[in-house]
Amino acid sequence: MRAFLAGVAFLLIATQAHAQTPEALAAVERAAATGARIFAHDQAAWYGTDTMIADIGDPRALGFRGWITEDAPDGGVVLLFVRPEGEALFAAYRVLYRDGEVRETQRINTPLTEMQTRLYRARQIAVDALQGHYCGSGYNTVTLPRAEPGADGADIDVYVMRPFESFQRLPLGGNYRVAIDSASGAVRGFSGYAPGCDTLDVEANSPRAMIWQVVGDTPTEMQVFISLTTHLHLSVVSHSGTWSVDGGAITYLNDTHN
After folding, report:
1. Dihedral over Cα of 116, 78, 124, 66: its sign
2. CB count, 10 Å around CB of 38?
3. What residue spans define the domains of the chain?
4. What is the Cα–Cα distance from 126 to 189, expressed in whole angstroms?
5. Which pTM value belongs to this model?
6. pLDDT tens by residue, 212-241
7. How far is CA 76 from the centre of its chain?
């Protein structure tokens, strides 16, 4: 495995227990829910950005510098494009993405709330922390607040993800979760999902692909995200057995040791 993130603990998403233990099943449930949430936020950023550019043209000319996404109270995801003014941060354009479509767009000029400011700054901290460790350029990000902070103070997870070259080349490696303590601005940990910059080639028009999992013992949120994005049915072979990842559904198939 290529060494990376030298001097920083590389946190493995893993469980040593058998696949059918409560711990493993809880890990799978978390992975399914988180992967689906990453997908929803990534889609909102993708389609919302296209819509915004079609509406206003060059966002940088208007001072836009990045974005955040939030779960909408009534469902869907809100995408806010951010415009700095000195030390202050303003939401300058709002998009509501729901049920696979852009539902609302609006030019606004609203100061970011404290939580929105933390999300915006957490994304930048994570992106800066990973400089020199990317597999190419043009990374995508999803920034999600935790329901409860960790014991180390981490309260926001930033998912920094390699873009797809095509849906026949799956970017297994080069995807990270960066845990941020937004109160102090400190990075509390990194998680990787596959060694180095591993890429899996998939036969054209194939509805499924097989992944040999060497990081962790159960399917991860990144595999759920990949399946939802590509519509591929993934067979994940790990130390705990073989799993099916089909969109947001993770199913245990069999024990690979038997």
Report:
1. negative
2. 23
3. 10-202
4. 10
5. 0.88
6. 988 888 999 999 999 999 999 999 998 888
7. 16
Contact (Cβ atoms closer than 8 angstroms) between residue 139 and residue 160: yes
Residues 123-137 pLDDT 10s: 999 999 998 778 988
Mention every residue, 6+ apart, whose C-beta is less than 8 A from residue 110: 90, 91
C-alpha to C-alpha distance for 235 and 190, rounded to whole angstroms:
25
Cβ distance 14 to 213 under 8 Å?
no
The one-letter amino acid at 206: S
Question: What is the tens place of the pLDDT at every residue in 108-121?
Answer: 999 999 999 999 99
Task: Go through the chain and tell me how many residues it has.
Answer: 258
Q: For 124-133, give one letter per residue: b (16+ CB within 10 A) or e.
A: bbbbebbeeb
Q: Are 12 and 191 within 8 A, CB to CB?
A: yes
Answer whether 95's CB lies under 8 Å from 50's CB. Answer: no
